[in-house]
Amino acid sequence: MQITKDTVVQFHYTLSDETGLLENSRSQDPVLYLQGHGNLIEGLEKAMEGHQAGDKFQITLAPADAYGERTEDAIQSVQVKHLMGAKKWKPGMVAVVNTEQGQRQVTVVKVGMFKAEVDTNHPLAGKTLSFDIEVMDVRAASAEELEHGHAHGVGGHHHH
């Protein structure tokens, strides 16, 4: 079965940039997602189209097709209590904050007693990313998955 809109796909990946390996999914369950519903970055979702279980391929995405270019004026001041993900914060750590657009990853630049300066660029913004993909499984989505707009099951996106 080929990957087309409304198929549920399981895949393993490694993610690298020009500095080397950033992530490897093989230490956990494969990633599970619903094709054609914006659950992956756009360039990767496009590249998955037409592949099938057992396919291995590599794709390199420019920042525009991945997490976008870095914005220079993206430093914001937030209250430390709003940073989620750790007890103690140091510059360079990635935190999660709730915004009107949902949860966002930010990078801590400076930390004070009550306020922190954070860089709101996605940690991978401005980077050219290389993915090594191995497609593990492709199946038709269930009615419930289509209704919810994402895959269910091990490694699937959990409800927030």
TrEMBL record:
GO molecular function terms listed in the Swiss-Prot or TrEMBL record: peptidyl-prolyl cis-trans isomerase activity
- Report the residue ranges that make up the PPIase FKBP-type domain in this protein: 6-70
Q: Name one GO cellular component term.
A: cytoplasm
Main localization, broad class? cytoplasm
- Record bears the keyword Isomerase: yes
Top-level EC class as recorded in UniProt:
isomerase
Q: Which domain of life is it from?
A: Bacteria
User: Which InterPro entries would you find in this protein's record?
Assistant: PPIase_dom_sf (IPR046357), PPIase_FKBP_dom (IPR001179)
Question: By its UniProt entry, which Pfam families does this protein fall under?
Answer: FKBP_C (PF00254)
Q: Which reaction(s) does its UniProt entry say it catalyses?
A: [protein]-peptidylproline (omega=180) = [protein]-peptidylproline (omega=0)
* Location in or out of the cell: Cytoplasm
The GO biological-process annotations, alphabetized, read as: protein refolding
What keyword terms does UniProt attach to this protein?
Chaperone, Cytoplasm, Isomerase, Rotamase
Known EC number(s)?
A: 5.2.1.8
Function, as annotated, reads:
Also involved in hydrogenase metallocenter assembly, probably by participating in the nickel insertion step. This function in hydrogenase biosynthesis requires chaperone activity and the presence of the metal-binding domain, but not PPIase activity.
Family membership noted in the UniProt record: Belongs to the FKBP-type PPIase family.
Name used for this protein in its record: Peptidyl-prolyl cis-trans isomerase
Q: Which organism is it from?
A: Rheinheimera mesophila
Its organism's taxonomic lineage begins at:
Bacteria, Pseudomonadati, Pseudomonadota, Gammaproteobacteria, Chromatiales
